[in-house]
Write a structure and sequence with these properties.
Blueprint (H helix, E strand, L loop, with lengths): L1 H10 L3 H8 L3 H18 L8 E8 L4 E8 L4 E7 L3 H9 L5
């Protein structure tokens, strides 16, 4: 079922839509998404990474933010952390090992 819920999350524009289509609570949808992202990030290799970027994304009514580290050339998300703080930025940069 979790694989189905992940496919729904990838197909819709919001967690609320995923919640309606899967009959899960918002918290359950959020946990499914968090586990999927955690698994995907753990599998990703940083081999070939040349240029990384930081971004912040809001969700909900625009008051909740996450900070995102992404590969600018490969167009892939490397890491996501809650908040848009200096500490969040430090955590993201620490995810990239020294060459």
């Amino acid at each position: 079922f979790e694989a189905y819920a992940i496919q729904v999350l990838q197909a819709v524009r919001s967690k609320v839509q995923a919640q309606e289509l899967t009959a899960l609570s918002w918290d359950q949808v959020d946990r499914v998404m968090e586990r999927a992202v955690t698994r995907d990030v753990a599998r990703r290799s940083l081999e070939g990474l040349r240029h990384a970027g930081l971004d912040e994304k809001s969700f909900g009514k625009g008051h909740d933010y996450v900070s995102v580290l992404h590969d600018l050339e490969g167009r892939r998300v490397l890491e996501v952390v809650p908040e848009r703080t200096r500490e969040a930025t430090d955590t993201l940069w620490a995810a990239i090992p020294e060459p």
